[in-house]
Structures are given as structure tokens and as C-alpha cells.
Amino acid sequence: MILLWSCLLVAVVGILGTATPQPGNSSLHRLTRQLLQQYHKEVRPVYNWAEATTVYLDLCVHAVLDVDVQNQKLKTSVWYREVWNDEFLSWNSSLFDEIQEISLPLSALWAPDIIINEFVDVERSPDLPYVYVNSSGTIRNHKPIQVVSACSLQTYAFPFDIQNCSLTFNSILHTVEDIDLGFLRNREDIENDKRAFMNDSEWQLLSVSSTYHIRQSSAGDFAQIQFNVVIRRCPLAYVVSLLIPSIFLMLVDLGSFYLPPNCRARIVFKTNVLVGYTVFRVNMSDEVPRSAGCTPLIGVFFTVCMALLVLSLSKSILLIKFLYEERHSEQERPLMCLQGDSDAEESRLYLGVPRAEVTESPVHQEHRVPSDTLKDFWFQFRSINNSLRTRDQIHQKEVEWLAILYRFDQLLFRIYLAVLGLYTVTLCSLWALWSRM
């Protein structure tokens, strides 16, 4: 009886064992084990070592993350694809349940040492450990990466600037005899592909042109593929927040030229405009990109306008100071003349009274008093006449100086208009060129 139950238990276990599928019996497991069992990832996967391995590249720009003008760096998010043929990873799909494509760990396979020459920071990309391999041995490696690359950024036409940054791919060790490069898609398709680009950022993608060339060096000839990413800035936000307020401030400053040059209110007005202009520049300093190699045109315009504003204000201050000194000296001179006349008269009267009491008779005094009165009146009349002549001369000098300063003021006004007009025409031309790209 015990023997019978033992036979039944063995039979049941055998039935269950044959009914449960084992991982080692699956076609995918057998195929993977067969491919990787004797695979050596240290060897370039070709049977003929003289034959080069061609790596096909493709690039699709997803977003522009940051444009650092001060450090001359561009940060982009791209979808990068590599495709090459591994002659050691091909199989007959009919022997493995018609499996045409499988995924294998990238760490177990040979991979080309393709780098980006413009890299200035650590590559940041999600860890994708697998690649697809089809039955003919073609390997597809797709991965999104964040590229921080060096780029010569030009900000002269800010905010209507267009940047052209290149991403150059090549093998770091293998020459063109070992690894050659090619395009996975047609160049025209790569250049005009904007489907994955995010258009809600500050920058717009214009094109991604590509070129292939051989770089010659002392270590050998290396195949290179260069992708030129052309982007342009969206200027509307800067036009509203930066250009239009600056033009309004310049127009207000132009209105100050209609005030008389010798008016003190003009100094107060121009001082307020200068303070407002300075506060505006300080608040907007972070909006204008700063670069050691290139100064934006808008920065040059702000500097020239501030220089003209300071020059006009200095001219008004010097004019008011000059007129004040002239008028102050003019008021002192008549007072000094009149003060000297009164002192002379008092001295004569003081000396003449005792002399008249001693020597002169009353009849003679009656005849002399009118004579002294006429002389005093004539002396005061001559003093007033000289004072009026001096005032006329000073007034004539003021008129001459005012005429010169009026001409200088008109010259500044015309220069101001010319600078403002030239700047407006330049911005309109840059905007027209920007819209045509």
C-alpha cells in the first residue's frame, strides 16, 4: 500500500513538472543564451577586420533649455539615435519561433565610442540599459540626452538675434578605417524635422543642417558628422518690456529741448528723466545678455542716449551758473558806485560846513548851494548812465552767449533725433531680417 501511494505521488509530480513551462525552454531564452554565450564585447563585431563598421546617426532637437551668453554655453535636449550592424548577433528566425527582434543589455555588447566634441559638462540622460537587435544583426540604440555644449553666441542684434551652434559627432579612438559614420535619414528630413520641438519656449528652431567630412590629424583620419542647430529668439517680450519703455523715455527727454535753455525748471526736468532712465537701466540690466566679446546694439544705444542726456544737463547747469554770476556782479557794481557817491558827498558836506561858517558870508552861501546841488546831480546822473551802459553790455553778452547755447542746444537736439532715428531704422531692419529667416 505504501508502495502504491509512492508511485502515485511520483506520477503526479511528473505530470505537474511537464505541464509547467520552464524559462530555459522558451525560444527567447534559448536565442539570448545562444547569442551571448560566446560573445566578446571587446572585439569589433566584423569577421573581416579590414572592413569598417558603419555607424548611422540621427538627431532630433526636442527643446532649448538654456542659453548662457556670459559663459558661451548652450543647453539642449535632443533625441539621439545610433544604428550599426553586429555580424556576431544574427540568427535564423525560423529556428526560434519567427522571432525577428529582441532586446539585449547594452553593457554586454560592443558599442561605438561616439562622443560630441563640444561637450563642456557631464552628459545627463536617463539610464536606458537595453538596445534592440534584429535577426540580421542590426542594433538600434535610442536615447534622450541633455547636451551642454560650447557655442559662440552673438548678441549684437539682441533681441532679434539668431544663434548657430554645432554638435560634432566622431569616434574618439577609431579612425575611419575602423569606424565610419553615415546618416540614418535623409539630410533634408533631418533639417526640416521640427515635430518634436517644444515651441512654447523663448527660442524657435529654424533648422538642423548636417554635414559629413573627414578630420585629418596626426593620429589618423577620423569620420565626423556635424549637426548645425540654428535657433532664433522670440523678441516680443523684450520689445514690450525693454524697447518700447526705453523709446518712450527718449521721447520724453526730447520734449525737454523745447524748454528755454536758461530755465531752471529744465534742469529739474532733465534730472528727473536721468534718474528714471538710470532706474530703468538698473531694473532691466538682467534682461540684456552680457558678453565679453560682443556688446548688444541696444546697450550701445542706451549708453549714447545717457551720454547725450548728461551732456545736455551739464550744459544747462553751466549756463544757469554763468548767468547767475553775471547778474550778481551786475547788481553789486551800481551799489558800489552809489555808495562811493554818498561817501564823497558826506565828506564834502562835513568839510564844507565849518569853512562856510568862518570865511563865507550868507549872501555867498545862497549863491553856492545851487551850484553844489547841480554838481552832485550831474555826478549821480553820470554814475547811473555808466551803470546802465554796463548793464547793457552785460545784457549784450548774455544775448550772445544765449545765441551760442541755443545753437548748441539745437545741435544736440538734431544729434538726438539722428541717433533715435538711426536706432529705430536699425531695429526695424533687424526685425525684418529676423522675420525672413
Automatic annotation (TrEMBL):
Pfam families: Neur_chan_LBD, Neur_chan_memb. It catalyses: Ca(2+)(in) = Ca(2+)(out); K(+)(in) = K(+)(out); Na(+)(in) = Na(+)(out). It is a multi-pass membrane protein. One of its GO terms (cellular component) is serotonin-activated cation-selective channel complex. Residues 1-17 form the signal peptide. Keywords: Cell membrane, Disulfide bond, Glycoprotein, Ion channel, Ion transport, Ligand-gated ion channel, Membrane, Postsynaptic cell membrane, Receptor, Signal, Synapse, Transmembrane, Transmembrane helix, Transport. Residues 242-326 form the Neurotransmitter-gated ion-channel transmembrane domain. Forms homopentameric as well as heteropentameric serotonin-activated cation-selective channel complexes with HTR3A. The homomeric complex is not functional. Heteropentameric complexes display properties which resemble that of neuronal serotonin-activated channels in vivo. This is 5-hydroxytryptamine receptor 3B.
